[in-house]
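are you around this afternoon, could really use another pair of eyes. what follows is a protein written twice so to speak, once as letters and once as C-alpha cells for the fold. i want to understand how the C-alpha cells follow from the sequence so walk me through it. anything you notice is useful, everything is just below.
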Amino acid sequence: MALTGDADTSLKMMTLAIPQRSLAYFTELNPADNSKFIEARVYRKWTAMKIPSLIPTGFSCILLDKKGAAIQANADMQEKERFERDLQINCVYRIQGFGFEKTDNWGKTLDNDMTLCFGKHTQVDLVTDDDYPVHYFNFAAYNELGGRLEKKNPILTDYIGYVHNVEKTKEYGGATGNKIRLRNIGIRNLNNNVVVFTLWNEMADSFRDEEYAQMQQPVIIAVSSCYLKTYGGQIQLSATSATRYYFNPPIDETAQLLAAYNQNNPTIPPLQLQTERSADWEQERTRNRVALGTLLLIDPNTQQRVLFTQDVKILNVDTTQDWYYQKCDECGGKLRYGYVHGQCHPYRTQPNPQKSPQTDGLIKDINILLQEVANKDPQVTPPEILALQNTRHVLQFRFAKPAGKGPPTFVLQKVMDHRPAILTGPSEGPSSPHVTATETQATTEKTHHLTYRFGLRSYSFRIVVTDGTGNATITCFSPQTDGLIKDINILLEEVANKDPQVTPPQILALQNTRHVLQFRFAKPAGKGPPTFVLQKVMDHRPAILTGPSEGPSSPHVIATETQATTEISPPPATPTASQDTPANTTDATHPPSSSAVRKELFGQSPEQESEPETKKQKTD
C-alpha cells in the first residue's frame, strides 16, 4: 500500500509541474512562447496552391478573435483533410498546440509578420460563443491602387463598391495547351471609378447568376485577398485561391454606399441594359434605346462600355471644331494644318517611303482594298485577307514590344517572296527609267507618301442631335462614319479648301437629316453635360456577302464574335500571381487573323481616337 501511495503522490507532482496554457489574443502572441491558447472564429479557409503549376500545397485559413484582429494559419497536406473537417466556417474554436512561422512575402493576405502553424499536436475544441466579429477587411481606396502597384506591395488587396456589371464566363485555350475560364465583374466606387475584378476557373463557374439577378439594386460587393495588376493601362483585381467575395456585407462601408446611392439617385430609375450584341440586325438596331434626356442625367463614368442606339435628327454641325485630323507618319502625333514636323524628317525631304505598309507583296494597298469591299467595318475581315490562310511566304520580321505574359509576337517588316524588279531595259513610255531614275524614284516616294497619309486621316467633326427629349453632342470618327458620309480621303480630293477649320458643304448637308445611330459615352473631359462618340450608323442593313468566301471562315461569324468581345470584355487579365495562364489564350474564341488585321490596318480603336489632340500613337 505504501508503494502505491508513493506512486500516486509522484504522479500528482508531475501533473502539477506542467504549466497550464493561458488564453491570449492575437496581439499578445509571441512566436517564442508556446504557453498560450487562442479562441477564434474561422473566417475563411482555402487550399494553398503552388504557382503556376496549381499543385495543392496545404491548408490555410484566417481566424478572427474577439477584439477584431485577424491572423492566418497554415497546415501541411498531411493534415489538410483533418482541419478541413474540424474547422468549419463561422464556428468558434479553442485552439492550442500550434507553432509560428515568419509570413511569406508572396501572397500575404494580412499585414502580419507571423503566421500560425497547425500540425498533429494541435488541439481543436468547439466553443459556443457568438460574440465575435463576422467580417474582417482592410479596404484600399481607388486612388491608393496605383501606389500599391508601383511599390509592388506584397499584401493582397481588399476592395469594395457597387456591382457595375457582371459578364458571362468565357473560356480561352484548348486541349493542345492550357484551358482557362474567367468571369469579369466591374466594381464602381462613389466617384464612379470602375475596377475590373476577375474570377478564374471554378470561382468563375460557381458565381450565382440567378441569385445575383434577383437582388435589389444597387448590389454592394466586397472582395478580399486579390492580386493587383494592370493590363492595357487598366488596373485590375485578380482573384487568388484566398479570395472570397461577399454581397452586401453588414459593415459600415456598405451602409455608406447605400446611403450615397439613395441620396444621389432619387429620380433616375435603374437602366435595363443589354450588354451582349445581338446577331439579329433589327434587334441590334433597337438595343438599349434610352432617351437622350435620360442619358444626359447619367454620370458617363458608370456606362463607359455600353453601346446605345437612338433614332435622332441632326440639328447642326459644330463648325468651331476641326472636321478632320491627320497624324504624322513618323511619331504618330497630330499634324496641325499648315505646320510641319521638321523634327521627324530630314531637311528638304519627303517622309521616308519605307514607312509605307510592309504588306506590299502580300496583299493590295489598303486604300484600294477599302474601295472594293462593301462592308468597311474594321471588325469584319474581308475575304481578300482571309484568303491568305494556308499560303506560304518568305517574311522578314522583328520582335514586337512585349505586352505581358505569353509567347513573344512579331511585326512584319518585309515580304520577300520575289526579287524586286530591277529597271534595266528601255521603257515603253516616253522616257527611259534608267535615265530618269531620280525622277521616277521621287514620283514613287510621293505616291507612297500620299497612300500612307491617307491611312492616317480621320474625320473628327461633331454633330448636335435630338430625339425630342434632349440635345446631345456626338463626335464622329472614321471609319464609324461609313453610311453617314463618304470616305474622308475621297472628300478631301473633292474639296478645294483642305483647312480642317473650314467645314465643307458635304458635312453641313447632314443638318436636318434623320439617322439611327449607335454610340457610347465619351470619356468626361471636365464639367458640363456628357458627350458621346459615334460607333455605327444603322440606317440600313449591311450588305451580306452572298458569294463563296475565299477563306475557310465566314467573315460575318467572325465579326459577331469579335464585336461582342470588343464591347463586353477587356482582354483577359494575365494571372501572373494567382493562376496559370496558357501561352495562347485567344485561340479558342477569337481567330487571330481578325484582331491582328484590325491592328495593322487601322492602328487605333475609336476609343483611342476620341482624344486625338492629346494621345500619340507609337508606330512599330
The chain has a mean pLDDT of 76. The longest strand covers residues 36-50. The chain is about 20% helix and 25% strand.
